[in-house]
Design goal:
Layout lengths: L12 E5 L4 E5 L3 E3 L8 E5 H5 L5 E4 L17 E7 L7
Antiparallel strand pairs: 1-2, 3-6, 4-5, 4-6
Length: 90
């Protein structure tokens, strides 16, 4: 007879391996306005997307995610679409 089975939740964070270092990333690849951008790249406003509009912006690491210029809502969700390319240094 087999031992008891256990259900586990999915991890809250996954890790992206890059040339520079490991950066924790939440599994949904989304951040709220007011949070700090940890991964530079192209982001989409999810509120606009769900309303049928497409609004994307590029953010640099270390910057605070702002409110969306196109949304009437103050609290928006930004989704990472494409991380910025890692630049190699010699």
């Amino acid at each position: 007879m087999c031992g008891p089975a256990f259900l586990t939740r999915a991890p809250l964070f996954v890790t992206i391996h890059s040339l520079e270092s490991e950066v924790p990333l939440n599994s949904s690849r989304t951040w709220k306005s007011g949070e700090i951008c940890r991964i530079p790249g192209l982001y989409r406003c999810q509120n606009c997307h769900l309303a049928g509009r497409e609004f994307t912006r590029e953010f640099e690491a270390g910057k605070v995610f702002p409110m969306c210029d196109s949304c009437p809502e103050k609290d928006v969700t930004w989704r990472l679409l494409k991380p910025a390319a890692v630049r190699a240094t010699a």
